[in-house]
Amino acid sequence: MLRVAVIGGGPSGSCAAEVLAKAGISTWIFERKLDNAKPCGGAIPLCMVEEFELPESILDRKVRNMKMISPSNKEVDIRLDPLGYDNDAYIGMCRREVFDSFLRNRSAELGATLVNALVQKIDTGTNRQGPYTLHYADYSNGGPTGEMKTLEVDLIIGADGANSRVAKAMDAGDYNVAIAFQERIKLPAEEMTYYEDLAEMYVGTDVSPDFYAWVFPKFDHVAVGTGTMQQNQSLIKGLQKGIRERARKRLFKGEVIKVEAHPIPEHPRPRRVVGRMALVGDAAGYVTKSSGEGIYFAAKSGRMCAEAIVEISANGSCIPTEKQIKSTYLKRWDRKYGATYAVLDILQKIFYRNDAAREAFVEMCDDRDVQKLTFDSYLYKRVVMMNPWQQVKLTLRTVASLLRGQALAPSNYGSVPSAVGRSDGDFLAEEASQAIKSKASEDPASNSEERSKVTSS
User: Fold this and answer.
1) Taking the CB of residue 76, how many other CB atoms lie within 10 A of it?
2) What are the respective helix, strand and coil percentages of the chain, to the nearest 5?
3) Please, what are the averages of pLDDT over each run of 10 residues along the chain (457 residues)?
4) According to the CATH classification, is domain 61-93+176-266+354-422 in 3.30.9.10?
5) Closest CA to 74 of 363, 350, 370, 406
6) CB neighbours (10 Å) of residue 368?
7) How far apart are CA 253 and CA 431, in angstroms?
């Protein structure tokens, strides 16, 4: 009987383990941080809710409105209702610790053995063909160091993220990684009401030279973050400051409750299958350019990889070969999604290269046809073809927007206005209060006098 180890308990690993367990294959899923909260916008398309049978209880919000904000703070509202979608259409917003835990626990309930452990070394056998011996620290008993154990398996699915140990063991080759940085911020009730079913995306060199920044609503807070490519990694804290500054009037009295950072891949690895080891999710490099989407593609890659293994092993009765895994899993994946990755890569290179192009990008998002095509593709993960008139119209609009973008691009950046009617006096008072608190924390004695001056005035 085939023995499979899934290294990593995020969406890709959990969905792979679920398929294998359902087929009756002996499956172990290894995850060190069972409460892990990956820094991630946490947006999932509607089709994923249906396809992966996700209960609404794991969704924090149902977003039906998006707001695109350009470098000059031009705001474009994209609402699902006017585009012809019914009330059941939405973008799901989740916290990764809740989402990942649900998928992981479901795979265990279906028969996968969940191990709270860190895989530290993998013996790959002759020519990396296995069998494979895992050396891991088991933390199931709650100890600080873990108990060293080993396990021999016939096949490994690497779902262990951008810094994948499985990728290193199989010599999958390096890839560039981007960095995502996110703060979770609690807001006053009025501001949270504004974000009830709304997500915001900001573009501009101040928030990211090659990507976008986001304010996404969660259960009782908003996730505020940004990302950038590896060569700009040293800028990430300044870019996070940029999105905080741009959105500061909508983050009134925001209290940071968690800070997160994590690498994400910029492109697929050179090798995703070596021997009987296969990579899925971030470990394989399945994050899209332009949109930065990774959750759906992680889960889908895990499922497709496992389905291929179930098929070619005849439900675990034989051990698949490297050639068989490549000709099923990789061939099917590349045929289904290769074009999507290529198109989004081109779009990122066109519209994220400077502020003029970003202004054009946001202006184009005001076009109803562009909105409909974008959301049809995103919500349902299907290729939507434009008719000839739409193609001509979009081409002309793109050229015109790029030309106008040169004039619209700002020389400096400002904050977007309050969305709930806060006055400038509210912000000035809050900034003065924060300045006093900051000074008091540095020199409490000297600031007692400063506070008395403010009070008497």
Assistant:
1) 18
2) 45, 25, 35
3) 96 98 98 80 89 95 94 94 85 93 97 97 94 96 89 98 95 89 95 96 95 94 93 93 96 94 88 98 90 89 98 97 97 92 85 89 87 83 60 60 68 93 89 74 50 41
4) yes
5) 363
6) 11
7) 9
Helix (H) or strand (E) holding 226: strand 222-228
Angle at CA 420, nearest 5°, toward 368 and 40?
A: 65
- Cα separation, 308 vs 314, whole angstroms: 10
Degrees, nearest 5: CA angle 271-273-277: 130
Domain ranges of the chain: 3-52+95-175+269-340, 61-93+176-266+354-422, 424-456
Neighbours of 130 (CB within 10 A): 21
E-only strand ranges, 124-172: 132-138, 147-153, 155-158
Please state, in angstroms and rounded to a whole number, the distance separating the CA atoms of residues 132 and 353: 45
Structure tokens at 409: 């691009």
Residue 89: exposed, middle, or buried by beta-carbon count in 10 A (0-12, 13-18, 19+)?
A: middle
As beta bridge partners, residue 134 has 122, 151
* Separation CA 33–CA 137 (nearest Å): 12
438: enclosing H helix or E strand: helix 424-442
| Among 360, 293, 284, CA closest to 12 | 284
CATH of domain 3-52+95-175+269-340: 3.50.50.60
Q: Could you tell me the pTM of the whole model?
A: 0.89
User: Which tokens go with 70?
Assistant: 């350009």
Helix (H, G, I), strand (E, B) or coil at 72: coil
DSSP at 158:
E
Treating both helix axes as pointing N-terminal to C-terminal, what angle do 444-456 and 424-442 enclose, rounded to 10 degrees? 150
Q: Could you give the CA distance from residue 360 to residue 364 in angstroms, rounded to a whole number?
A: 6
CA distance 93 to 295: 11
The count of C-alpha atoms lying within 13 angstroms of the C-alpha of 375, restricted to the half-sphere facing its C-beta, is 23
